């Protein structure tokens, strides 16, 4: 195995399935399936069984993908399911698209925005926000068509909600 | 010369056809049922005051009143995807089922791929292939925005596609939405007619035949292959399918499609094609006020 994108033993050119638990871990620093499920459960209260049909893969340094189909391990392809989570850094960060896809199942660390604050978040702007919750990555959500819908990932620190919506997904949208 | 002049004797209602080709196309979106329902997407558009009309043949396709509606909240959430109305046909013809193994051989930028994923309820294994890295990046971006999770993306020449990377024996269904001369997109991009040459068409035919042959070879017995293009040229449509009917073990299936279509042609420019080609579908712009299209459904080894 080559060093790929810099993580020892992690080949940045292929997708490797995450080990089930730390006892199965062969590549140092690689997240395990158990850790990934625990993280979504601890941080957002998304039940682990949400992901029963999914496998998790690492390609590149700490980029985790979730995939619902069948694939051999390792597999040399251009993409496998969707990008899901960034690990190998102090604070793990969920991907915007993963939060839009799975964030409806969250029961904590969800910041509800209405009207102009929701539009500002979609534009990628940071904003003051009074919120009595944990610092760190949160799911920003708003009411759409009669239900709460996750918009993306926010970073809540020092009374400020920072939008991490990637440039290519930012939009200037009207206040609902 | 306008290449459409070639079809004077081929297209019924030729004058109306030419007039339709000169009109711009309405802006159409497909509702992405991986992330929402048609009902909820419509509710969200209503809340935002975006005007639209559902198409009469597919409740998940909405025509916007304004030609350029810009973006809106449901789009931001990946509930909608801009897709030319008629390009929703081949995925319906392929009719993939949840849990199956499906290949989209020429997948980028991914409108049809993500539609296939939705038809599969985002289950099974969908492989989206393209040979161009830039186009693959568009495919991945679109698939992620729409929340597709059953898709593996490969970069290969579809003419000699290898099943090895995914370690599969065969696919249940393969879509070949082949690179073509794009005459049928003239309502969206009139430049395609100015740039059209017979040399270009001749160059495409070899690629189209190669990809369709390989698609049939990779499909299990009884499986389905759909061949589609957005062009009217019989050289790129019936002639390609006719060639593969001879070269590989497959036959044309008579599949009902929800749009008004015209039968495939069986003779063109001195050549005669298999009689079953009448069961393939030509979509003309004046029939349903859409772009132009061609779609053939094949059953393998039966």
TL;DR of this structure?
The complex is a heterodimer of chains A (176) and B (302). In chain A, 15% of the residues lie in helices and 28% in strands.
Protein model, in words:
The complex is a heterodimer of chains A (176) and B (302). By secondary structure, chain A is of the alpha+beta class. Chain A has two domains: 16-103; 109-169, Archaeosine Trna-guanine Transglycosylase, Chain: A, domain 4, CATH 2.30.130. Chain A has helices at residues 33-44, 96-102, 116-122, and strands spanning 16-17, 55-58, 63-67, 79-80, 82-86, 93-94, 110-112, 127-128, 136-144, 147-157, 160-163. Chain A has a five-stranded antiparallel beta sheet. A five-stranded mixed beta sheet of chain A has the order 7-9-10-11-8. In chain A, 37% of the residues are buried. The model of chain A has no long low-confidence stretch (mean pLDDT 94). In chain B, helix 8 (198-217) packs parallel to helix 9. Chain B contains ten helices and 15 strands. With 302 residues, chain B is of the alpha/beta class. Chain B folds into two domains: 3-25 and 85-300, Vaccinia Virus protein VP39 (Rossmann fold), CATH 3.40.50.150; 26-83, Alpha-Beta Plaits (2-Layer Sandwich), CATH 3.30.70.1170. The radius of gyration of chain B is 19 Å and the shape is globular. Chain B starts with 13 loop residues before the first helix and ends with a strand. The chains are: A alpha+beta (176), B alpha/beta (302). Chain A binds chain B through residues 53-54, 66-72, 75-83, 95, 97, 100-101, 122, 144-147, 149, 151, 168-169, 171-174, 176, and chain B through 34-36, 40-41, 43-44, 47-48, 71-78, 122-126, 128, 136, 139-141, 143-145, 147-155, 165-167. Strand 4 of chain A pairs antiparallel with strand 7 of chain B, so a sheet runs across the interface. Chain B: Its EC number is 2.1.1.-. Chain B: This is RsmB/NOP family class I SAM-dependent RNA methyltransferase.
């Amino acid at each position: 195995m080559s060093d790929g994108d810099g993580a020892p033993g992690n080949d940045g050119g292929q997708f490797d399935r995450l080990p089930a638990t730390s006892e199965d871990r062969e590549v140092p620093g690689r997240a395990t399936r158990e850790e990934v499920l625990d993280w979504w459960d601890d941080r957002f209260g998304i039940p682990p069984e949400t992901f029963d049909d999914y496998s998790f893969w690492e390609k590149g340094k700490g980029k985790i993908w979730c995939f619902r189909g069948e694939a051999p391990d390792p597999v040399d392809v251009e993409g496998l399911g969707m990008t899901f989570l960034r690990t190998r850094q102090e604070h793990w960060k969920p991907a915007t698209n993963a939060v839009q896809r799975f964030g409806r199942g969250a029961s904590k660390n969800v910041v509800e925005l209405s009207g102009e604050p929701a539009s500002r978040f979609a534009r990628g702007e940071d904003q003051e926000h009074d919120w009595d919750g944990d610092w760190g990555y949160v799911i920003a959500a708003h009411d759409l068509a009669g239900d709460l819908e996750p918009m993306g990932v926010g970073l809540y620190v020092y009374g400020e909600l920072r939008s991490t919506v990637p440039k290519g997904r930012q939009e200037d949208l009207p206040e609902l | 010369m306008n290449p459409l002049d070639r079809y004077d004797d081929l297209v019924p209602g030729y004058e109306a056809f030419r007039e339709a080709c000169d009109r711009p196309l309405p802006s159409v979106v497909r509702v992405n049922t991986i992330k929402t329902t048609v009902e909820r997407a419509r509710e969200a558009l209503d809340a935002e005051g975006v005007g639209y009309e559902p198409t009469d043949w597919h409740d998940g396709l909405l025509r916007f009143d304004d030609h350029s509606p810009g973006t809106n909240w449901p789009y931001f959430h990946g509930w909608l995807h801009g897709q030319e109305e008629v390009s929703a046909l081949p995925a319906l013809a392929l009719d993939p089922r949840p849990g199956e193994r499906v290949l989209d051989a020429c997948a980028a930028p991914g409108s049809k791929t993500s539609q296939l994923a939705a038809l599969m309820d985002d289950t099974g294994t969908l492989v989206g292939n393209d040979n161009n890295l830039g186009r693959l990046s568009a495919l991945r971006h679109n698939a992620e925005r729409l929340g597709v999770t059953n898709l593996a993306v490969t970069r290969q020449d579809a003419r000699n596609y290898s099943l090895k990377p995914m370690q599969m024996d065969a696919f249940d269904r393969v879509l070949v939405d082949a690179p073509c001369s794009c005459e049928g997109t003239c309502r969206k991009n009139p430049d395609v007619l100015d740039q059209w040459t017979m040399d270009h068409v001749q160059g495409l035919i070899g690629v189209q035949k190669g990809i369709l042959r390989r698609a049939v070879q990779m499909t299990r017995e009884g499986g389905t292959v759909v061949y589609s293009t957005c062009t009217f040229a019989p050289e790129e449509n019936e002639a390609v399918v006719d060639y593969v009917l001879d070269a590989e073990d497959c036959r044309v299936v008579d599949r009902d499609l929800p749009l008004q279509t015209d039968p495939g042609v069986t003779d063109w420019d001195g050549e005669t094609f298999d009689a079953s080609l009448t069961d393939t579908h030509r979509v003309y712009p004046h029939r349903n006020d859409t772009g132009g299209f061609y779609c053939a459904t094949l059953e393998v080894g039966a």
